């Protein structure tokens, strides 16, 4: 399903060459709206406690019945590190703090998805599923994972997080230039 009308003024859109790429653009005089594409940003958590990883079993599609790391999508006006703390709390009742960004997945498709995986430090709480998105939650050892229906992407993320030599990208809480409203992460 495509976009047919301007999100700014409501006028019809037409296919037009914009900087060498065909894009839907507004036909109204004086309106410069261009539909740049459809994108989503997902976040995922890798929370470890006592050599066990926090996992949830998906109660809905996509991935119903698979064990995955907790996560979800960022909100429009939410910083990504706030998004992942919220998602972990919503899905598992566990409090965790961001240590760093350890992996990134780029999945170009109809809605281009970028997924950011965070290494997180366990702060508190016992895993309890939300009963909507997930029907089970818990900390599991690597040995226990061998007999579980763990999603392939989650297996890859766990391996990346466990074998990482550092914390990946960490939040720059004291940048050399103050950039209000920016979430800055660095090596």
UniProtKB/TrEMBL annotation:
Q: Which residues form the Nudix hydrolase domain?
A: 38-163
- Spell out the InterPro entries in the cross-references: NUDIX_hydrolase-like_dom_sf, NUDIX_hydrolase_dom
Q: Does the keyword Transport apply?
A: no
Q: Which Pfam families match?
A: NUDIX (PF00293)
Keywords, A to Z?
Answer: Hydrolase
Cite a single GO MF annotation.
hydrolase activity
Give the protein name, as stated in the record: NUDIX hydrolase
């Amino acid at each position: 399903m495509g976009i047919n009308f301007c999100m700014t003024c409501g006028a019809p859109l037409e296919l037009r060459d914009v900087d060498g790429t065909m894009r839907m653009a507004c036909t109204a005089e004086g309106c410069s709206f261009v539909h740049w594409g459809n994108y989503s940003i997902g976040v995922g958590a890798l929370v470890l406690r006592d050599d066990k990883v926090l996992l949830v079993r998906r109660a809905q599609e996509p991935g119903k019945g698979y064990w995955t790391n907790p996560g979800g999508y960022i909100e429009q006006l939410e910083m990504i590190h706030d998004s992942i703390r919220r998602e972990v709390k919503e899905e598992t009742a566990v409090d965790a703090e961001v240590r760093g960004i350890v992996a990134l997945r780029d999945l170009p498709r109809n809605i281009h998805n970028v997924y950011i995986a965070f290494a997180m430090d366990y702060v508190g709480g016992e895993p309890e599923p939300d009963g909507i998105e997930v029907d089970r939650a818990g900390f599991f050892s690597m040995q226990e994972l061998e007999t579980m229906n763990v999603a392939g992407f989650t297996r890859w993320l766990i391996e990346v997080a466990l074998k990482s030599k550092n914390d990946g990208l960490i939040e720059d809480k004291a940048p050399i230039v103050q950039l209000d409203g920016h979430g800055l992460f660095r090596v």
